[in-house]
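Key result, reporting period 2: structure in, sequence out.
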């Protein structure tokens, strides 16, 4: 029986047809970033302490975009550097932003909705967040450059509204989002666990691996960014069914992101504790997505794609390579293959 919906032999395939004339497949955020006159660093990982920055008129400091291959559609990094004894221009914006300090010392001044000011001081490995649309200014109070990573959801927001004026010049003050400014002075001393700063939807999970251990592999979604904080470690990433793995060695200053729906696994490769910061969209307070709700313990939702590979079911090459890595450091394994 003939199928009335079948495509006749030799008929053009719509999927493979040339794109129509005019604008299509526009990425407004990428277009905005290309017009910023600062470097755009890409790849599976980036050493934030060494990559180039250039003067960034938008913020009144030196900076660069860091667009990792695994960032997906939600999070990006603005790499900011303040010259010695300098300050950024006053800013406010609708996107959320979490700042991880890489080097140098400084402070950030916020103006609350009622007009009073709050100031936090920061140093290497400090973590703080900017309240939604709060007026603020960063300052470097030392004789050395100060560099920090600003992880934000500008990519998603700009592609949604497509207006720089709306993002940066909306006057509404979100008083309900602006309480006492929260900051972590040193992530190396912070107890491991989830952090929700500035009542935001960007999560910051501090994870520590004891010597001689590693984590089980799990799928990654929505552009999780991993920042090395303390110790020596590495990450493996691979799509399901792949014959090999992509390895990234991390330490303080290295950021990596595994592409969405790939498996990702973190390892301690040194003699001391290894600690990293996992930044994702969807916090413990405001999980936003079903899979983030499940990650924080809500068993009533179906967390599509958040599968974990048990240690007993992992590729035996993973454990073997890890044993070789820690043997070179004289570390005794605390996990069975």
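The corresponding designed sequence is given below.
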């Amino acid at each position: 029986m003939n199928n009335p919906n079948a495509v006749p032999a030799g008929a053009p395939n719509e999927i493979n047809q040339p794109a129509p004339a005019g604008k299509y497949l526009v990425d407004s955020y990428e277009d905005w970033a290309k017009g910023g006159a600062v470097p755009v660093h890409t790849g599976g990982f980036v050493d934030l302490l060494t990559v180039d920055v250039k003067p960034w008129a938008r913020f009144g400091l030196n900076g660069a975009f860091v667009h990792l291959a695994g960032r997906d559609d939600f999070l990006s990094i603005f790499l900011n550097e303040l010259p010695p004894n300098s300050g950024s221009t006053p800013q406010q914006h609708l996107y959320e932003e979490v700042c991880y300090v890489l080097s140098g010392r400084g402070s950030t001044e916020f103006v609350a909705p009622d007009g009073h000011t709050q100031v936090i001081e920061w140093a290497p490995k400090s973590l703080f967040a900017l309240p939604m649309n709060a007026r603020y200014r960063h300052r470097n109070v030392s004789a050395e450059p100060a560099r920090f990573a600003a992880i934000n959801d500008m990519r998603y927001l700009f592609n949604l509204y497509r207006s720089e004026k709306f993002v940066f010049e909306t006057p509404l003050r979100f008083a309900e989002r602006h309480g006492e400014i929260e900051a972590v002075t040193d992530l190396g001393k912070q107890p491991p666990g989830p952090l929700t700063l500035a009542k935001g939807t960007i999560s910051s999970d501090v994870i520590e691996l004891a010597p001689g251990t590693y984590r089980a592999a799990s799928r990654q979604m929505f552009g999780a960014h991993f920042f090395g904080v303390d110790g020596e470690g590495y990450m493996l990433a691979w799509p399901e069914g792949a014959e090999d793995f992509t390895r990234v060695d991390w330490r303080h200053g290295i950021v990596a992101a595994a592409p969405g729906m790939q498996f990702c696994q973190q390892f301690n490769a040194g003699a001391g504790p290894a600690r990293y910061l996992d930044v994702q969209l969807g916090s413990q307070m405001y999980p936003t997505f079903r899979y983030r709700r499940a990650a924080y313990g809500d068993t009533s939702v179906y967390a599509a794609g958040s599968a974990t590979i048990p240690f007993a079911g992992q590729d035996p090459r993973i454990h073997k390579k890890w044993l070789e890595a820690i043997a070179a450091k004289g570390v005794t394994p605390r996990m069975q293959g």
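Confidence is low (pLDDT under 50) at residues 1-8. Residues 75 and 153 are 5 Å apart (CA to CA). This case is discussed further under Risks and Mitigation.
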